[in-house]
Structures are given as structure tokens and as C-alpha cells.
Automatic annotation (TrEMBL), chain A:
Annotated catalysed reactions: adenosine 5'-phosphosulfate + ATP = 3'-phosphoadenylyl sulfate + ADP + H(+); sulfate + ATP + H(+) = adenosine 5'-phosphosulfate + diphosphate
CDD domains: APSK, CysN_ATPS, CysN_NodQ_II
InterPro entries associated with the record: APS, APS_kinase_dom, CysN_GTP-bd, CysN_II, G_TR_CS, GTP-eEF1A_C, P-loop_NTPase, SO4_adenylTrfase_lsu
SUPFAM superfamilies in the cross-refs: EF-Tu/eEF-1alpha/eIF2-gamma C-terminal domain, P-loop containing nucleoside triphosphate hydrolases, Translation proteins
Sequence positions that bind ATP: G464, L465, P466, G467, S468, G469, K470, S471
Name of the molecule in the record: Adenylyl-sulfate kinase
Pfam families, per the entry: APS_kinase (PF01583), GTP-eEF1A_C (PF22594), GTP_EFTU (PF00009)
UniProt similarity note: Belongs to the APS kinase family.
GO molecular function annotation: adenylylsulfate kinase activity; ATP binding; GTP binding; GTPase activity; sulfate adenylyltransferase (ATP) activity
Listed pathway(s): Sulfur metabolism; hydrogen sulfide biosynthesis; sulfite from sulfate: step 2/3
The organism of origin for this protein: Brevundimonas subvibrioides
Active site: S538 (phosphoserine intermediate)
Keyword Cell cycle: no
Keyword Nucleotide-binding listed: yes
Length: 632, 321
């Protein structure tokens, strides 16, 4: 809402009555309005409701009263007040939560969600976006595309909305200048090329004055495209649910007495007939549909959108959350999948917090591992940020990729402690395959390898500030171990960054990924029976712990190469500190970003007191002590 | 800065012709399936659900949908009617018949404390009466039976603050609604997780409009209270509102003589607080025809809404349905 107003004295009856068209075949479009705060979203919907004749006389009278009290001018109508129904919204002149409104034109019924523009209330915008067919993204002609316009566009794209109307509003404020419209339209088109929209239609409008909303305007005679309402009327409503494979989400087991046991739920897609053989996912059991029960009587078939009750001929175990499908077209069943998340909780994502996932009708505990957070944000996942992640459940769940079937691939994460909706997400693909390869790799066991090599495999992880001596110690250690017939490999930050990790920079996310990959490489070598000597600054304790968790028990030694910052700075073997002080390197650990010393290392090496050779001997003693290598 | 053009008052979009009896349009089928899904979701997750039954047309549709959702079983929850003792006599008759027709258990709750204190719309005014006999009474009943989820027939098109409410709406301790802290509600992934002291209000008709309710009622032949249809009734006019004098409890003011006028109701509440409208619509087809050409909103006759701006939101925050 932005307090735009129209003088009351100017309301006149419509001289042109609407012609009566054929209305029986009218279809139905759900859309939302979104964009930055003050771009005029609520005003636009108020205008749409008014211009399509949906505002009753007493509502108009109330609007007149409210406009006097809350609007910006005493004697004028403020259409946004038709939408902003909460007291706080009216007082502050902003939209806080989503409002749903209904209107129709001769060609279509519309459900519109008016969503807030403030970044603080982005989760309410996302609520409005879920389940919509289209989005009207507003841009203020005098301000152009903003960060919030882009954020909303990314959410709209993430939630599978494929058709977007870019409404360049307040075109009257720029004197109906076509070049302003063209500049904004092409800037947005360039940005939207990176998203998954099928169509973007740009229209210039003035919601306040009604230009090109429902009626064409002579002040926009240069614009040859549709009015906003014409654009909304002609968007394709893509409902491919009927052509998709049959999916039935079991919601409720209806068991009034011993004589009846039915599975109540909604057909998410496709069609089922009485007599069809079905498979229960994820259990994989098969059964036959004997009856399709409704209040109106038994039916011979049910299709996408129907809420029915299925009775099965065989006694199989079916529970809430199961998915019924046809045997030749089953959903994916996996206990791990990749997904994109929009974080919605004020409390940032915390890896060791307990979350539950609600996908389809199933609710299950879930472990979330972040893969990548959208560019431009610090490590972690905070309110309103988008990330890709890997989700692991204790057992398999049935799903389809969200892009195939939103009812089967959309999910929410619930914070177990507070009950809050922590995130909304879309499932991408199963990650179960890796699990099936793993046992094959185990054909030769760890014990077989250590017998052949004469020593255990594992990772020795040297962590410490830049210049603390990690690489020097690792080099000395490798020479000594080689002399004793131990198979080793040396991994350090620099040599990995020249090859495997050359795509990574020094942002917090990239540093975390650098450590994760190094840990994975060390794990592979350890499985192959080698001892890898890993020299990485690796400043974050949780990142180091994550590497330890990926290696077998007694397969990881954390060694803290301890040197005071002053000593490291004085040594500065690679000139890093000098460059950091000169401002060439940002965020050097110890200078611009912090280092978390290990809280419980296997060994601490005081490099002020020990030579590199002596430090290496300490490590060898530890290896003998832990029985990785035999005593000489 | 351009001057505002004259604001043209548009004609409402015409509606489609009435559907044949017994045949739901795709639009109504979609709304019906959504409501059924909501009912089943609660039945599967709630500990002790209840359905608020207010006897009006929305409650009638709600009950009908509940019967469909669980067929061949009866709905696995009772109905609760909060009786303010000021309902029209026709409404009470209708309530008892309908409960029997659908085979559901009906519970009636009256705030005895309010009755003893003599609270009434006549003596106490609409605001206090609604607070004590509706809001407080409802909270008493919910607490007394320990219901964790209560269905209601509210629709988003009724009123601006209702348009903002979720389908699964969390109420805090004391049944209060905090509109600024609503949980996100995405796709059909309802979150029914509750913290101690919280309860849920669930609105299966959220996405229905008044016209949807009437068209569904007509096609499904759902019984409704005769007060929705026009008839000659004894009426007094107060501040422009037509009040039907249902019994002797409504005192006449000096010089007031009830007149027989052809009126009906668009919305039913306590009788001194519900204004009638003049109408010739004596059956459901003419009610629908009248609605389609109407220029006033449904809650126009609900005097409690006009108490103050945003009064519905305030009542809801205090625990009103």
C-alpha cells in the first residue's frame, strides 16, 4: 500500500454496461502480486476489484471512511485499504500478511494473493506464491528493478511458477515515458533469463489512475500490448496433472468398524480405475483397487483432484503418508535426495537442530546438509535465503521431482522444538545411487589392505594459522614415513587449489567447500589403505569435525600446529600477511577472519619449542601409539 | 503530476447461468475436494477435534462436506453449538433436525455465568453480549472438553481480516490470535504441530465465496434455515436497520409498532443484532439471482462488525471465531 488516492467526487457510474458473454466455460487462474514495498501491489488489487465491479456499496462507504482516517488525503479513496485488513497494516501503511481475494471477468475466475513487499515478511509472500499459476511482479517506474524484485522473482521461479507479468506501475509518475518502460522491461528480461520462466509479459500501468489495468488508456497510446487484465486472461493455465502417472496420497485410514477399511485421500495426478493393480510406495507391496467409494456412491474411476476413498482387495499394510501408484510408473523411493530450500524461520539453519520434513502426507525426521547458499551471503542459511541441500531421512520416502509434480515434490521443514515452519523446499533428485555402489567398493576390506601394506590407512589432519608450519612439518613427516616403507600422500591447500579446487575462491562458502573436498579425497585414499598428510588452515571447527565424521573410527587424527599469530606473521613464508596488510588479500585467516583452535585435538605441536623434524617425530610416536604403523 | 481521471463505477461481471441440479461445476468440485482434504487432514492428526456449528448456511455446507469426507463412517467429531440464548427460534429448530439428519453428535454450550448476570444484547449492548455469550462461551466450551482443533465455516471473502487468516490458524494460550505471527502455509502441506497451550482453528471454506456457498447449497439440496428466504415478518426499523422481533424479549421503544414486511436475512446471528433486508426472494434460485445483482456485502446486516474499524480482527484476537 502506498497511499495513492482518487478524489471521491470523481466517482461516476459506468456508462457502458458489460456485454453478457458465454460464461459456462470460464476457467480459473490463481496468481499473486509481488515486488518491493511501495510498488503499489495492494492498490493494484483494489483497483482490479473495483474496476471489475466487485466492491459492494457498503464496502465503498467503509473505504471512504477508512480513507479519511488512514489515507494520505482527507477527501480521497485509497484502494489499498480494501486489502490491508489488519490494524497494524492500516496504521503503518504496509502489507504484513498475504490476503486472498476473488474476482472474475467474462473470461476467467481469478484468485489473487496480495503479498507483502517488505523483506521482513518474505515468508508471507512465499505462502502466497505456493500453488499459484502466475505472478504479477510490480516495479515502480520511477525506481526500476530492485533487489527485492529479484528476490521475489527467484522465489516465484523456485516454486514452479512459469508465467510472469511484469507490471511497470506508476507510469504516470514518469509522464508515460515509453523509454522508461522499455529500459525497465529489458533490464528485467536480462535478469529473468537466468530463471525458469516460460513467458514474461511486460505491461505499463498506473494502478492509482487505472491506466491499462482493465481499460486501455489514451495516455499509453504508444503501447501496443495488452492491458493487465487481458494479459491475465490470456495466460495458459497449464494443468498437466491428468496426463501424469497416477499418484494417490493416503491421508487418512477410514475404519469405522471391522467391515470397512478404506484409504481416504486425494488423487494428485493421473487416473485410477476399480480393478487396477496398484503398488504401495515406499514399501513396494502390490494390491488391487476393489472399490472407489464416495458419498454419491461407488465410482468406476477417479482422476486428478478427486478426494475419494479407495478400498483394496488384498490386506496389505498401507498407512498415512504412503503413495499409491501404478506398477509401471512408480514414484522415486529414496532416503536421500537433493533439494532447494527457502529458509523461513527467524532462527538460522543449525545443522545439529532437530527438524522434521513434511512431504506429501508423510512427516519424518530429517538431517539437512547444506550444499550451496545463494551468492552474496555469509556462511549458513538465514531468514529469506535460498540454498541447495542434501536431505537424509531414516527410511525411504516416496516423492517425485517438484518440477514433475508439485504435490509430490514440495515440502516444508518443521522445527521440532518450536513447531515453526523453518523452510519450504522443492525436491530435485534422489541421491540413493551412491549407497548402492559403496558395498562393491568394499569387496576388499580395510583389514585386507592393511595386511597387504603393513600399516593402516587414515588421514592426519594438520590445522593451524597460515605460516604456522603445517606444510613444513608434513613434508618432513612424509620423508620419514617413506623411509619406513609407509605409503603416503601429501595434500595441502595450495596444491589442491591448482587442480581439483581451482574453481573455488576465498569466500566462507568456498573455504568450507575446499575443506570438504580435501576431506573426501583423504577419505578415498584412506579407503585405499594410504595415509594422507593433510595440511589445511581449515579454521572452522565444525568443518573439521565433518571430515572426521566421514572417515572410519580411528581413521582420523587432528593435529593442532600451534604458533602465535606474531610468530606466523614474522615467518610469513608465502608473503600472505604482507599482502593482507597491504589490502591485496581480504579475509586472511588470523587477519580478516578468525581461526577456531581445535577443542579436543589428538596432538598439539608447539612450533616455538619444536623443530619441524622433532614435530614429525611426535606424530610418528602418535601413529605407533594408535597402531596405525608398527614400531620399528 | 497528472490529474486523476473520473473514476468510473463498473458493473459487476455477469455470472454463468445456474447449473442443472445435482451437477457441480469444476469450480465447485475443486472447492469441495479441497475442503474434504482439510477435514481428513485434521481427523488424521488431531487429538480431539470438534466442529463449530452456528446453524447458518456456511455451517450447513461445512457439515455436508464433513459427512462426505468420512463416508461411509460418520464424521469422527461432534458438533458444538455455542448458544447465546438469543438465536431465532427457527434456527434452534433447524439445528436439532439437521443433527439428526446427518447422524452427528450435537453438543450445546451456554455461558451460564453470563445468563445469571443477565447479559443480553438488549440490556448489555452488542459488544458486551458478543464478548460474554459468544467469545467467552466458546472459550469455556473448548477448554471444558479439551478440544485441540475446532473447525469453523469462516470464508476469506467475508471480511478483510478473515482474508488474512490461514486455513490452519494457530491460537495461542487463551485462544488469542496473533495476526503478526502466522505460520507460513504452503501448498497443501498443513502444519498441525502445536505447542503446549496452543490450539487450532481450521477453516475448510476459506476459499469459498458467498455465491459459491449458495450455489453448492442449491445443487446439493442442503437444508437451510427458512429465515434466509423472504416472508412477512414483524419488523421494527432502528438506525436504518430492519430488526425482526422474534419474541417478546425485544422491548419496543416509545412509539415503535412492529410492521409486517417482506424481509429475509443474508447472514444470521443473534436476532436483535442481525438486520434483515427487504426482499422478494422466497426460494433459493431467487436468492442466488438477488445476490448476483446485489450491490451490498454480506456482513452489512451484522451490527457487531460496525462497532469500530477492524472490530472483527479485535474480536478474533480475543478468541472470537
Amino acid at each position: 500500500m502506498d497511499g495513492e488516492v482518487v478524489p471521491l467526487s470523481r466517482i461516476v457510474p459506468d456508462p457502458v454496461p458489460v456485454p453478457v458473454p458465454d460464461l459456462a466455460g470460464r476457467d480459473h487462474l490463481r496468481f499473486l502480486t509481488c515486488g518491493s514495498v511501495d510498488d503499489g501491489k495492494s492498490t493494484l488489487i483494489g483497483r482490479l476489484l473495483f474496476d471489475t465491479g466487485q466492491i459492494a456499496d457498503d464496502q465503498l462507504a467503509a473505504l471512504e471512511r477508512d480513507s479519511r482516517r488512514f489515507g494520505t488525503a482527507g477527501d480521497s479513496l485509497d484502494f489499498a485499504l480494501l486489502l490491508d485488513g489488519l490494524e497494524a497494516e492500516r496504521e503503518q501503511g504496509i502489507t504484513i500478511d498475504v490476503a486472498h481475494r476473488y474476482f472474475s471477468t467474462a473470461r476467467r475466475n481469478f484468485i489473487v494473493a496480495d503479498t507483502p513487499g517488505h523483506e521482513q515478511y518474505t515468508r508471507n509472500m512465499a505462502t502466497g506464491a505456493s500453488g499459484c499459476d502466475a505472478a504479477v511482479i510490480l516495479v515502480d517506474a520511477s525506481r526500476g528493478v530492485t533487489a527485492q524484485t529479484e528476490r521475489h522473482s527467484r522465489i516465484v521461479s523456485l516454486f514452479g511458477i512459469r508465467h510472469v507479468i511484469l507490471a511497470v506501475n506508476k507510469i504516470d509518475r514518469v509522464d508515460y515515458d515509453p523509454s522508461v518502460f522499455e529500459t525497465i522491461a529489458s533490464a528485467y528480461a536480462a535478469f529473468a533469463a537466468g530463471l525458469s520462466f516460460r513467458s514474461v509479459t511486460a505491461v505499463p500501468i498506473s494502478a492509482r489512475l487505472g491506466d491499462n489495468v482493465v481499460r486501455h488508456s489514451c495516455r499509453l497510446s504508444w503501447f501496443e500490448g495488452p492491458t493487465l487484465i487481458e494479459a491475465l486472461e490470456s495466460l495458459p493455465v497449464e494443468d498437466n496433472r491428468l496426463s501424469r502417472p497416477f499418484r494417490f496420497l493416503v491421508q487418512y485410514v477410514n475404519r469405522p468398524d471391522h467391515s470397512f477399511r478404506g484409504y481416504a485421500g486425494t488423487v494428485a495426478s493421473g487416473r485410477v480405475r476399480a480393478g487396477d493393480q496398484i503398488v504401495v510406495s515406499p514399501s513396494g507391496k502390490t494390491a488391487t483397487v476393489s472399490r472407489i467409494v464416495t458419498w454419491e456412491g461407488d465410482r468406476t474411476s477417479a482422476e486428478a483432484g478427486d478426494a475419494v476413498t479407495l478400498v483394496l482387495k488384498e490386506e496389505v499394510d498401507v498407512a498415512r503418508g504412503d503413495v499409491l501408484a501404478l506398477p509401471h510408473a512408480r514414484p522415486t523411493s529414496a532416503d536421500r535426495f537433493s533439494a532447494s530450500l527457502l529458509w523461513m524461520d527467524d532462527r538460522a539453519f543449525t545443522p545439529d537442530r532437530a527438524y522434521r520434513i513434511r512431504i506429501g502426507g508423510r512427516t519424518s525426521p530429517v538431517k539437512v546438509a547444506l550444499a550451496e547458499v545463494e551468492a552474496g551471503h555469509a556462511a549458513g542459511l538465514n531468514l529469506n535465503e535460498i540454498a541447495t541441500a542434501e536431505l537424509t531421512m531414516p527410511g525411504p520416502v516416496a516423492f517425485d521431482p517438484f518440477t514433475d509434480d508439485p504435490a509430490m515434490g514440495g515440502f516444508i521443514l518443521i522445527d521440532r522444538e518450536t513447531g515453526a515452519v523453518a523452510a519450504a523446499g522443492v525436491a530435485r533428485a534422489a541421491l540413493g545411487q551412491a549407497r548402492h555402489i559403496y558395498p562393491t567398493a568394499e569387496a576388499v576390506s580395510r583389514r585386507d589392505r592393511s595386511r597387504l601394506n603393513g600399516h593402516e590407512g587414515g588421514a592426519i589432519w594438520l590445522t593451524g594459522l597460515p605460516g604456522s608450519g603445517k606444510s613444513t612439518i608434513a613434508t618432513a613427516l612424509e620423508r620419514k614415513l617413506h623411509g619406513r616403507g609407509i605409503r603416503t600422500v601429501l595434500l595441502d591447500g595450495d596444491n589442491l587449489r591448482h587442480g581439483l579446487n581451482r574453481d573455488l575462491g576465498f569466500s566462507p562458502e568456498d573455504r568450507a567447500e575446499n575443506v570438504r573436498r580435501a576431506g573426501e579425497v583423504a577419505r578415498l585414499f584412506a579407503e585405499g589403505g594410504l595415509i594422507s598428510l593433510c595440511a589445511f588452515v581449515s579454521p572452522i571447527e565444525t568443518a573439521r569435525r565433518a571430515v572426521r565424521d566421514r572417515l572410519p573410527a580411528n581413521g582420523f587424527l587432528e593435529i593442532f600446529v600451534d604458533a602465535p599469530l606474531d610468530a606466523c606473521r614474522a615467518r610469513d613464508p608465502k608473503g600472505l600477511y604482507a599482502r593482507a596488510d597491504a589490502g591485496v588479500i581480504a579475509d586472511l585467516t588470523g587477519v580478516g577472519s578468525s581461526y577456531e583452535p581445535p577443542s579436543d585435538p589428538d596432538l598439539v605441536l608447539d612450533t616455538l619449542a619444536l623443530t619441524p623434524e622433532a614435530a614429525a617425530d611426535r606424530i610418528i610416536a602418535l601413529l605407533e601409539d594408535r597402531r596405525w604403523i608398527p614400531a620399528p | 503530476m497528472t490529474l486523476a481521471a473520473p473514476l468510473i463505477r463498473p458493473t459487476p461481471t455477469p455470472s454463468a447461468p445456474l447449473a442443472p441440479m445435482g451437477r457441480l461445476s469444476p469450480h465447485l468440485r475443486r472447492l469441495e475436494a479441497e475442503a474434504i482434504e482439510i477435514f481428513r487432514e485434521v481427523a488424521a492428526t488431531a487429538r480431539n477435534p470438534v466442529m463449530l456449528y452456528s446453524i447458518g448456511k456456511d455451517s450447513g455446507v461445512l457439515l455436508h462436506l464433513a459427512a462426505k469426507a468420512f463416508y461411509p463412517a460418520p464424521p469422527p467429531f461432534p458438533l458444538l453449538h455455542v448458544d447465546t440464548t438469543w438465536k431465532f427460534r427457527d434456527m434452534i429448530r433447524h439445528r436439532d433436525t439437521v443433527a439428526e439428519t446427518y447422524g452427528v453428535r450435537l453438543m450445546v454450550h451456554i455461558n451460564r455465568d453470563g445468563v445469571e448476570r443477565g447479559v443480553s444484547p438488549v440490556a448489555s449492548g452488542s459488544s458486551l453480549h458478543t464478548q460474554v455469550m459468544k467469545t467467552d462461551a466458546l472459550k469455556q466450551a473448548l477448554d471444558l472438553h479439551g478440544f485441540d482443533v475446532a473447525f469453523g465455516g469462516a470464508r476469506r471473502d467475508e471480511e478483510k481480516s478473515r482474508a488474512k487468516e490461514r486455513i490452519f490458524s494457530v491460537r495461542g494460550p487463551g485462544h488469542t490470535w496473533d495476526p503478526r505471527r502466522q505460520k507460513p502455509e504452503l501448498w497443501k502441506l498443513w502444519n498441525s504441530a502445536l505447542q503446549p497451550g496452543e490450539s487450532l482453528r481450521v477453516f475448510p471454506l476459506s476459499n469459498w465465496t458467498e455465491l459459491d456457498v449458495w450455489e453448492y447449497t442449491r445443487i446439493e439440496a442442503i437444508p437451510v434455515v427458512p429465515l434466509y428466504f423472504s416472508a412477512l415478518r414483524p419488523v421494527v426499523e432502528r438506525d436504518g436497520a430492519l430488526i425482526v422481533r422474534d419474541d417478546e424479549r425485544l422491548p419496543l421503544q416509545a412509539g415503535e409498532v412492529p410492521q409486517l414486511r417482506r424481509v429475509r436475512f443474508r447472514s444470521l446471528g443473534c436476532y436483535p443484532l442481525s438486520a434483515a433486508v427487504e426482499s422478494d426472494a422466497a426460494d433459493i434460485d431467487s436468492v442466488i439471482a438477488e445476490l448476483r445483482s446485489s450491490r451490498s456485502s454480506e456482513r452489512q446486516g451484522r451490527l457487531i462488525d460496525a462497532d469500530e474499524t477492524a472490530s472483527m480482527e479485535r474480536k478474533k484476537r480475543e478468541g472470537y471465531f
